[in-house]
Every structure is written in C-alpha cells, then in structure tokens.
Amino acid sequence: MREKRSEELEALEEVFDRSTLMVVYDFMNHGFIDEIHGVVSAGKESRVYWAKNSEGKELAIKIYLTGSSEFRKGMVQYIEGDPRFSGVKRDTRSLIFTWARKEFKNLEQAVRAKVRVPRPIIVRNNVLIMDFIGKDGVSAPTLKERIPSNPERIYEALLVELEKLYRKAELVHGDLSEYNIMVWKAKPVIFDVSQAVSISHPMSNFLLKRDVENLNRFFRKLGVNVLPDNNLYGRITGHGQA
Ligand SMILES: Nc1ncnc2c1ncn2[C@@H]1O[C@H](COP(=O)(O)OP(=O)(O)OP(=O)(O)O)[C@@H](O)[C@H]1O
Ligand SMILES: [Mg+2]
Questions:
Q1: The predicted structure's pLDDT at residue 18
Q2: Rounded to whole angstroms, what are the CA distances from 67 to 48, 49, 63, 94, 200?
Q3: Between these two residues, 229 and 70, which has the higher pLDDT value?
Q4: Could you say which of 34, 82, 192, 211 is catalytic?
Q5: Residue 230 and residue 234: Cα distance in Å, rounded?
Q6: For residue 99, which ligand has an atom nearest its CA?
Q7: What is the dihedral of CA 99, 120, 127, 7, to 10 degrees?
Q8: Is residue 27 in contact with ligand 1, taking CB distance under 6 Å?
Q9: What DSSP designation does 142 have?
Q10: What residues does 39 pair with on adjacent strands?
C-alpha cells in the first residue's frame, strides 16, 4: 500500500477490524481516497470521515461498525419486504453490508431522480464513499444544528425534494427529521438514507406518514404555516389524501 499515512489513518486503524481496513487500503490504492483527514461524526452505528481523493475533491467516508449488534434488530424490517434486497443473508455482518449497499443504492436512485443528496461514489462491505456536503472538512449544518433564517423556503424546497424522492426515485426516507437534513447553499440536502425503502415495501405508507408528521412538527415549531399532514402526504405521493 502507498505510504500516505496520516494520524487520522492511524486512529482509524485502532477502531476498525482487519477486513474493514483492507477495504479502506484498497480504496486508497485505487485512488478513490488519497488522504483521510479527520472524523466528522462518531455515532453508535457508523463513523463518518472527511477525506480527499487524488484530485483534492472532498469526500465523506461512512463506515458502519460491524460490532454493533444492537442495530441488527431494527435493521431487518427495513430490508425484508424491499424487493431490491430479497434473499440476503441474515447474519449480523451480512446485514450490515447489505445496509451499506442499501444506502448506496438509495443514494443512486435519489441522484438519478435529481434529489439533493450526497452523490455516492463507491461501496464495499461496510465502507461507503460519497460526496462531502460542506467545505474544508466542516459539514453543512443540519436543521437541528442551525435553525434556518428562511424556514418557509426550506420547507417548500423540501416538499419538492420529497416529491421527486417518492415519485421518481420511488423511495420513502423513513427517518426524516431535522437530524437528517442539511442546509447547503441555502437549499436542503437529504442524507442518512440507509433505512429508506422502496415505495412497494409494506411499511412504506406508514413510514411516509411518520416522515410527514416529523417534518410538519419541526417546521410548525418554527412558525411555518405548514400543509395539514394529509395534504402534505397527498402532495408528495400525488395520490390524494392519506
Ligand atoms: N456526505 C456527507 N458530507 C458531510 N458530512 C456528512 C455526510 N454524511 C454524514 N455527514 C456528517 O456525519 C453525521 C452523521 O451522519 P449520518 O447521520 O449519515 O450517520 P448515522 O450513522 O446516522 O449517525 P447518527 O447516529 O449520528 O445519526 C451527519 O450529521 C453529518 O454531520
Ligand atoms: Mg443520522
């Protein structure tokens, strides 16, 4: 492997197992990653690193923790019932790999539908590389981190994104909240889509209604004159009221 060792890479080597590291090294050897610069976020289920490729372009590397077995329980229901992932293995490791692949596919489908999400670059096992949303290693703020000064416009823009996500990408986010929406260049970017399901998933309707309620609750608190839940549901799906 090329000798491009940063302190951050060394720190990463202390957190992840050998097989995860092999994937990271392979991505380095193939030029997907040139340097890993820092941890952006260390959650229960994943860590996100700020990196650059060989052209200096900023990347986010999301690495799912394979030791996190808690996460297995909640995960299965989002995989089962999604026709894209029928017949996958059920051991914890395989499920986590499927989870990462699912996030990648969801991002791909969303990008194809021109939804504002991070562009996915490559995924293997539990390691996913995507565009970095933000600049110089500082992630764009989430709605939770920074209340937008123009909440009405962000709300309106989100409705357009959700319409594309449902009608064109045929996906329901399933965990939509102020934690999973960033604002970049005055427009919303939806992320953290590993749990997003195909609209044909038996839970998709329930999940969409929950997303709609969460979104409306957040923006109502900011004083936005939100659409009633039913109308918002209808606006997103084009199917009339829930
Ligand atoms: N593509 C990206 N560009 C910039 N920052 C990102 C990107 N993806 C994720 N992040 C940062 O990492 C954080 C966690 O990402 P994400 O929500 O996808 O992971 P998670 O496993 O759900 O973590 P958590 O449990 O903390 O929500 C985000 O809040 C954001 O600050
Ligand atoms: Mg998240």
A1: 95
A2: 16, 18, 12, 12, 31
A3: 229
A4: 192
A5: 6
A6: 1
A7: -150
A8: no
A9: B
A10: 49
Quote the pLDDT of residue 44. 84
Amino acid letter, residue 28? M
Q: How many CB atoms lie within 10 A of CB 41?
A: 12
- 211 labelled catalytic: no
Please name the residue that has the structure tokens 């539990």: 126
Q: Which residues lie below 8 Å from residue 160, measured CB to CB, with a gap of 6+?
A: none
- The amino acid at residue 78 is Y
Closest alpha carbon to 154 in 130, 126, 132, 185: 185
Cβ-Cβ contacts under 8 Å for 36 (sequence gap 6 or more)? 6, 8, 9, 12, 24, 49, 50, 51, 61
Q: Name every residue whose Cβ is closer than 8 Å to that of residue 224 and which is 6 or more positions away in sequence.
A: 151, 152, 155
CB of 178 within 6 A of ligand 1: the answer is no
Q: Which two tokens stand for residue 135?
A: 């600049």
17 as an active site residue: the answer is no
Which ligand is the nearest neighbour of the Cα of 43?
A: 1
Closest to 159 measured CA to CA, from 208, 199, 197:
208
Distance (Å, whole) CA 48 – CA 51 = 10
182, 133 in Cβ contact below 8 A?
Answer: yes
Token duo for residue 130? 């995507």
42 lines ligand 1 (CB under 6 A): no
Query: Would you state the pLDDT for residue 6?
Result: 81
For position 133, what pLDDT does the model report?
A: 98
